[in-house]
UniProtKB/TrEMBL annotation:
It comes from the Bacteria. GO terms for cellular component: cytosol. SUPFAM superfamilies: PRTase-like. It is found in: Cytoplasm. PANTHER family: HYPOXANTHINE PHOSPHORIBOSYLTRANSFERASE, HYPOXANTHINE-GUANINE PHOSPHORIBOSYLTRANSFERASE. The lineage of its organism: Bacteria, Pseudomonadati, Bacteroidota, Saprospiria, Saprospirales. This is Hypoxanthine phosphoribosyltransferase. It is an enzyme of class 2 (transferase). It comes from Phaeodactylibacter xiamenensis. Pfam families: Pribosyltran. Residues 20-164 form the Phosphoribosyltransferase domain. It catalyses: GMP + diphosphate = guanine + 5-phospho-alpha-D-ribose 1-diphosphate; IMP + diphosphate = hypoxanthine + 5-phospho-alpha-D-ribose 1-diphosphate. Keywords: Cytoplasm, Glycosyltransferase, Magnesium, Metal-binding, Nucleotide-binding, Purine salvage, Transferase. Its cofactor is Mg(2+). Pathway: Purine metabolism; IMP biosynthesis via salvage pathway; IMP from hypoxanthine: step 1/1.
Amino acid sequence: MAERIQLHDLHFKPYLSEAQIQARIRELGQEIAADYQDKKPLFIGILNGAFMFTADLARACHFDADFAFVRLKSYEGTSSSGEVITMIGLKAPVEGRYLILVEDIIDTGRTLHTFLPQLQAQNPASVRIAALLSKPEARVKPLEADYTGFEIPNKFVVGYGLDYNELGRNLPAIYQLED
Ligand code: 5GP
Ligand code: MG
Ligand code: MG
């Protein structure tokens, strides 16, 4: 197993290995295929955190689909700022489309709680959520993903797209903040 790492001033221990993540993503691809095979869904990846998950999920979904990205921001350091800012908005038309939002992690739920109504206002055929990680104990807004990779405890994690002040996104595995 990989070793503990340091990013800036904090230490992290191995939590989900690259093999565990990739195996779970293959299962999610199969679940999503069963529901969307003939619907040509539009996956909307939420940058920056979901860039790696979106790319791997795309390769696990063996059916016609398109991909778009938005950039939303709510985190500063290791905690949610409570405010959601749209840094880059959606350019693709979504009316009548089957949308699948792709998130790295659902924490307080504020990001998607803010973003979902903005999408619903544009009359898509449907909107579902795929999240690699979920911290149910941290929820402030009632919100669940339709496809969840792993439910995890309320501890800060990094790697596989997730950063600590912009470090750690390129790690192929996920690490948890040490107590
Ligand atoms: P929300 O609180 O709105 O559900 O989460 C918004 C975003 O905060 C997530 O998409 C993710 O980018 C970031 N975030 C939430 N929990 C963590 C965490 O444990 N580690 C890191 N690096 N980012 C997180
Ligand atoms: Mg995110
Ligand atoms: Mg971040």
